[in-house]
Amino acid sequence: MDLLNVATTVLGAIVILVVTADAIQVTLGVRPRSRRSAPSTLFYGWTLRLLRRATHRLDAGRSERLLAWFGPVSILGLLGFWFVGHSLGFALIWTALPGAFEEPLGFDEAFYFSGVTYLTIGFGEIVPISDWARFIAIAQGLIGVVMVALVMGFLATLYGIFIDRERQLKMLDLPGHDRIRPIDLVAYVQRGVAGEERLRAFFSDWAVWAAGITTWHTTYPIVAFFRSQHPGQSWITALGLLTDSAVIALVEHDGDHPEAEQMYRRGVQAITNTPMGSEDPGLVISREEWESGFARARAHGMDLGDEQAAFEEMTRLREPYAETLGAVMRALAAPPDMWSSSTPAVPRHDQ
C-alpha cells in the first residue's frame, strides 16, 4: 500500500469515527455540548441560517407552516447527513484498499458499494474478495444495523419528551384574558382565600417543568426546534413568562419567596443553557411598559412598593437571562406573547 492509499484510508477512518461519535452523542445524549464543531452542530447551524432567510421572505401563515415542519424534517436531514458521512468514509477506504476487489473501484463505484453495504441491501454486483475487505464490509453492515436501532429509539424518546413538554404547557392558562402577562398571572393565582399557598404550589410545579426543559434540551437539543401544534404557544415564550412571573413575585415579597426563587433559578438556568447568539440588548422591559404594569398590579391589589425601586429590582433580576431569552425567541421565531388556552380564537403571531 503506497503513501497515498495510506493517507486515504486514514482519512476515511477519521470520517467514520467523527460521524459515529456524533451519531452516538446525539441519539444517546452523551455529552451533547462537548464539541461545538460536531457534524450535527454544523448541520443545524447551516439549516437554521437557510430557514431564517426563507421565513423573512414569506408571509406569517407560510412562515409558520415552514417552521412547524422544520423540527421533524431536520431529523430526517440529520439521518441523511450521517448516512452520507459513513458512506463517504467507507468509500475512501474501499478505493484505497489494495486487492479488495477483482479490479480497483472508482470513487463512484466505491460510494455505491458503501451505501448498499451500509443499508444491508447487498445486490451482489460488487463483491469483496480479500479477507480484510470482507471483514470491513461486515463491520460497515453492523454499523448500519446499529444506527437503525439507535435512530428508532431516538425518535421514540424525542416524541415522548415533546408530548410531555406540550402537555404541561397547555395547563398554563389565564381565564378571561387573551394575552397572558406576568403581573396578571401572579395576581390571578394568588387571589382569594389561600392564595399565597396556591402561588407557592404554582411556582413549585412549574419549577419542575423548567428543570425538565434544562434536562431535555441539554440532552437532546433537537427538541428545542419542535414547535407547538397550538398557535400562540411556545416553550420558550412560556419559560420567559414564568421566569418573569417569578421576578414579579420576588419583587412583591422583597425577595422572600422560596418557591418563586426556585422557579427563578430553574428558569434562568433553562434559558441560559439554550444560547443561540444575540446581536442586541434582548427583551428589555422599558420604563413605560413597567409603569403600565405597575398600574395593573395596583389595580389587582398587589403591593410592589416604590415604583422606581421595584423597577430597578426587576431590571436587576432579569439581567442574567433577558438577552439570551430574546435571542432564542428570535432564533425560533417564537410568538412574543403567550396566549391563553381558553381564548376562543388564538391569533397567530406575525413573523
Secondary-structure map:
Layout: H1 3-28, H2 39-56, H3 60-96, H4 107-118, H5 131-169, E1 179-180, H6 182-189, H7 195-219, H8 235-252, H9 258-272, H10 287-299, H11 307-331, E2 338-339
Antiparallel strand pairs: 1-2
Radius of gyration: 26 Å
- Please, what is the oligomeric state? single chain
Q: Roughly how many Å apart are the termini?
A: 58 Å
Order of helices and strands: HHHHHEHHHHHHE
Helix content: 55-70%
What does the largest sheet look like?
Answer: 2 strands, antiparallel
Low-pLDDT sequence parts: 347-351
Structural category: mainly alpha
Strand content: under 5%
Tell me about this structure.
The protein is mostly helical. 67% of the residues lie in helices and 1% in strands. Strands 1-2 form a two-stranded antiparallel sheet. The model is unreliable at 347-351 (pLDDT under 50).
Features:
351 residues, mainly alpha, two-stranded antiparallel sheet, 11 helices, 67% helix, 1% strand, disordered C terminus
